[in-house]
Amino acid sequence: MRLLTHLRHVDLAVPDYDEQLDFYAGVWGLTKVAEDSGISFLAAEGSPEHYVVRLRRSDEKRLDLVSYGAASPADVDTLAEQLLAGGVRLISRPGTIDTPGGGYGFRFFDVDGRTVEVSADVEVRRHRKIEEKESIPVKLSHVVLNSPDLNRTREWYERHLGFRLSDTLMHPRMGEAMHFMRISNQHHSMAIAQGPHTALHHISFELRGIDEYMRGTGRVIRSGARKLWGPGRHLAGDNTFTYFLDPQGNTVEYTTELELLDEDTWHPHVYDFSRPEVTDQWGTANAMNELVAKESFNDVDRGCFVAPPV
C-alpha cells in the first residue's frame, strides 16, 4: 500500500548561506517566505507547498532532509508503525511540525543515512497561476540521490515507502546507473544514481512550459551561474533538462513536461545511456562526459545518520 502522495521540499545546509539565499531567491526564481536566524524557507510561486527549499547556515555542507507528503495523520501514524516494525530507525515520533505551514509528521533515516520527513495536514499556501513567458519555477519536480549501492537503496524505498520502478539507465561498461522511482503517475518523484558515496545528485524544478523553460535557462546562464548540461530532452521521463551548479556546488535542474504514466499498463524500460538519443533526444545539449557526471556526484554528505539540528 502506498502511503506517500508527493514530494514536498528538499532542505540544504550550507556554509555560504547569504550567497545561496541570493541565488535561490534571486537568479533561480524562488520566493523567500520566512527567515529566522540563519534558516530560510523558499516557495515556488505556483506551488501550494509552503516551501520547496529550506536553507540552513552551517559549517558543513549537507543534505538536511527530503520531505514527502501523506494524505492524512492516520497515514502518517500507519507509516511510522510500519517503519518501526520493519526495523527502520526513527529520529522522531509522529507529532506537530513547527515549520511554515505546520502539519503532523515525523522523521527517520533511510538505508543510506539520509533524513526523510513525512507529513500530513500541512496548510495550503496561497499560490497563483504562472503566466505565459514567466520563467520561474512552478513547483518542485523531483530529487535525485547518489547511493554507493543503487539496488540496496531502490529495494529499501520499494519495501518501506511504496516507491515503484519506472525506468532504469544502464551503461555497457558500468552496468546499472540510475533507477527512476515513482509514488504517483508522475514518471519519477525521486531517482537513485550510482555514486561513489551518499550525497545529493540534483534537485529539479518544473517550469510552466518549453518557452518558459528556455527563457529561464537563458536567464540563469546570463547570471554567470555555471551550466553543467543542457538544454536537452531526456528519453526516460521525456522531460526537458538544463543543469546548473548552485554557489555551493549542488546541482539544480530546470525541467518541464515530465511524463505522466498509466500505472496499470506501464512496464519499466532499461535504457542504454551510452546512446546519445537516450540522454538527449533533441541533440542540443553538450555531451554527457565524465566531468559532467563527476560534478553531480557532489561532495561526501557529512549528514549520514546525523539528524539535522532543526
CATH architecture of the largest domain: Roll
Q: Superfamily at the CATH H level of the largest domain?
A: 2,3-Dihydroxybiphenyl 1,2-Dioxygenase, domain 1
- What would you call the shape? globular
Summed up, the helix count is 6
InterPro entries: Glyas_Bleomycin-R_OHBP_Dase, Glyas_Fos-R_dOase_dom, MMCE/EMCE_epimerase, VOC_core
Keywords: Metal-binding
Organism: Streptomyces phaeofaciens
GO molecular function: metal ion binding; methylmalonyl-CoA epimerase activity
Summarize the structure in words:
With 310 residues, this protein is an alpha/beta fold. It folds into 2 domains: 4-120, 2,3-Dihydroxybiphenyl 1,2-Dioxygenase, domain 1; 139-297, Roll (2,3-Dihydroxybiphenyl 1,2-Dioxygenase, domain 1). Helices cover 20% and strands 35% of the residues. The chain is built from 6 helices and 17 strands. The protein has helices spanning 17-27, 73-85, 150-161, 210-222, 276-279, 290-297, and strands at 4-14, 31-35, 39-43, 53-57, 62-70, 95-96, 104-109, 115-120, 139-147, 164-171, 175-182, 190-194, 199-206, 227-233, 240-245, 251-255, 269-272. A 9-stranded mixed β-sheet has the order 14-15-16-13-9-12-11-10-17. It has an 8-stranded mixed β-sheet with strand order 2-3-4-1-5-8-7-6, covered by helices on one side. A hairpin with a 7-residue loop joins strand 11 (175-182) and strand 12. The longest helix is centred in the N-terminal third of the chain and has 13 residues, at 73-85. The radius of gyration is 18 Å and the shape is globular. The model has no long low-confidence stretch (mean pLDDT 97).
